[in-house]
Write the structure tokens for this entry.
Amino acid sequence: MESRTLLVEGAHAFTPRVFPDARGCFVSPFQQTPVAEALGHRLFPVAQTNHSRSRRGVVRGAHFTLTPPGIAKYVYCARGRARDYVIDIRVGSPTFGQWDSVVLDDRNFRAMYFPVGVAHAFAALEDDTVMSYMLSGEYVADNELALSVFDPDLALELPGDTPLLLSERDTAAPTLRELESDGRLPRYEECVKLEHDLYAG
């Protein structure tokens, strides 16, 4: 499994080896040893797994979790194709306001690691795109917030070849500046400590 660091501090992309044959293929999108070597620690204890299916043009996010409690994620595409975005919204982070994206699909089976406190979004590039997540914490609705993917200051490169479909909540989501003004963004130092405690436990 190959790994590379992304433009957002603490975020990584992983590309496993795919074994094709006449029957189809076999692949391990998550492998503990190479992930631990890249991150400097083992993956978090998994508290919940999520599975979403989206048609082409669907954009989910950008979403983040209040910190504390904060949540780390490991995400890959089990079917179809999507552009996955990681956005640094941690106030005080050396990469605050920066973002990166990786195309995840069912051919290369790349995966992404999201550290505690960052925002996550993806845009489905094919019908029936299935995204699979491993999470360090369980979903609590009151802890989940949204950031606008249309924020002009972020200038995310969204697909332009198909109409985009978002939930009402995501369409009306505030900008990064609005969230910062309201004091709703996570603090970098607290995110780092929570992530350290997550792996120390």
